[in-house]
Amino acid sequence: MFPVTRMRRLRMKETIRGMVEETRLDVGDFIYPMFVVFGTDKKEEIPAMPGIFRLSADRLVREAQRVRRLGIRAVLLFGIPETKDEMGSPGYDDNGVVQTAVRTLKEGVEDLVVITDVCLCEYTSHGHCGIVADGAIINDPTVELLARMAVTHARAGADMVAPSDMMDGRIGSIRRALDEEGFTDIPIMSYAAKYASGFYGPFREAAGSAPAFGDRRSHQMAPTNVREALREVALDVEEGADIIMIKPALAYLDVISLVRDRFDLPIAAYSVSGEYAMVKAAAQQGWIDGERVMMEILVSIKRAGADLIISYFAPEAAEILSRPAS
Ligand code: PBG
Questions:
Q1: What are 29-42's pLDDT values in tens digits?
Q2: Which of 14, 20, 25 is nearest to 297 (CA)?
Q3: For a pocket test of ligand 1, which of 34, 203, 216, 217 has the largest count of ligand atoms closer than 8 A to its C-beta?
Q4: 46, 119, 153, 276: which to mutate for ligand 1, most atoms within 8 A of CB?
């Protein structure tokens, strides 16, 4: 009790504060999402995401080399195709934008873990995550296409696949398809608890993947639910997921924390485009200290229990972490 106990004793000096930190961000925690387009020497800034670009494969390699030098081990690749159709077929083409970029990255960047997004929404003309019939996404035929897509990514050399579609049964189907093709050692990072979120706005602009009609609430989770997230995670674990992802991150720290308590798999949290855009916009206005808020958000995600943090901030945060500690 006071006056024997004084909580401020350990807070008096920067050095001692550093010694008693309970949570530390490490550059090895980060996965950096990247957007790839066809062509050469292309670098198109995404309006609501300052500092994030759609890059052609040649530029992608250079940017990936830069982030790898910062200590970031893994990238998560999203493709923006030239054409789209009802079935999302450019998404499971061996010469598609992602498949081509994976080959280029694996050749051009040493020791980089290349993870690919598996979902049809960037490749369908209607922007939905699957095949649409009578205005609804039909689950089982969509799952077959997702499995095909995952195999094309693995064949191109992807180190890991990350299905973000939220169809039922896709983890099991993707696992079987990969195994049948001999990719038994390619892990699946499952977007297990992915919420129907307004925080994806800038991403959809970046990827041109906003649904032409309706929304994603028939497959993504309601922001109100957390017990349901535990069921989603349990199912994906049973179906063979190797890493579990929760998305978005900041508004769902309770979900991360609960999943951490209940499951022993590595947990990834995706700090999504809207989380990035909010910080950047407020910082540009001079309303917040962007760097400080960024680091605070990232450490909160780790403190909640995430092992891996997928974030557009990764390179900036990595640079800050490489500064010598006081
Ligand atoms: C779907 C996908 C989305 C994001 C990642 N994968 C968009 C969606 O579900 O509509 C969002 C990522 C972000 O906002 O940063 N392929």
A1: 999 999 999 999 99
A2: 25
A3: 203
A4: 119
